[in-house]
Design goal:
This protein is of the alpha/beta class. 42% of the residues lie in helices and 13% in strands.
């Protein structure tokens, strides 16, 4: 008799493990696992691997090659607003990326500018719907809690300025290496890539 791992496939089995870990982390912080969205970030993986996870019942997938859209904050927000309006679709839900670590390698608005950018999107971009904030923690695990605290503080400031309850503003923080801590610190959206799909695979450069 085949094992469940063989039947499900490695990625589907890994997904089930991640969902169990999410549930445990949620329970640890007295939250419901249903409050937390798990985004399966496939990156360089083939459709056949994504299909394993889809067939296991998962429906929330993501890629991250458009993360540059917030690098030039209002200008790019305006462009995205124009593009969405030009195709006549309903407003696009967006999360604003905040550079909580101050690293030049990371995209996103500075924490001091997140209130103004959120106000700009809500008041000046009728084709965009502000839904929350996101960040990418530092690789140094010991620094990650500070990054998460910074984003939570940004949410408090943004919600106060916009006059909306904090539970209506998503916090997208936490990836494969730190999603359990992120959940304990209030994340509503975790982005899991390598833990589900394995390491990224890039095509090898051809040598002359």
């Amino acid at each position: 008799m085949a094992s469940s791992a063989a039947v499900d496939g490695v990625a589907a089995t890994a997904l089930r493990s991640v969902l169990q870990r999410v549930q445990l982390a949620a329970e640890k912080s007295a939250r419901k696992s249903q409050e937390i969205r798990v985004v399966a970030v496939s990156k360089t993986k083939p459709v056949s691997v994504l299909r394993q996870v889809y067939d296991a019942g998962h429906r929330c997938f993501g890629e991250n090659y458009v993360q540059e859209i917030v690098e030039k904050a209002p200008q790019i927000a305006n462009r995205l607003n124009h593009v969405v309006g030009s195709i006549g679709r309903k407003p696009l839900k967006v999360l604003l990326q905040v550079n909580t670590s101050g690293e030049e390698s990371k995209s996103g608005v500075e924490p001091s500018g997140c209130v103004e950018l959120a106000k700009h999107v809500t008041s000046g971009c009728t084709n965009l719907e502000f839904c929350g904030l996101m960040t990418i923690g530092m690789l140094d695990y010991t620094s990650t809690p500070e990054n998460f605290k910074t984003l939570a503080n940004c949410r408090t400031e943004v919600c106060k300025e916009l006059g909306i309850p904090e539970e209506q503003c998503e916090l997208s923080m936490g990836m494969s290496s730190d999603f359990e801590l992120a959940i304990e610190m209030g994340s509503t959206n975790v982005r899991i890539g390598s833990t589900i799909f394995g390491a990224r695979e890039y095509p090898k450069k051809q040598s002359n």
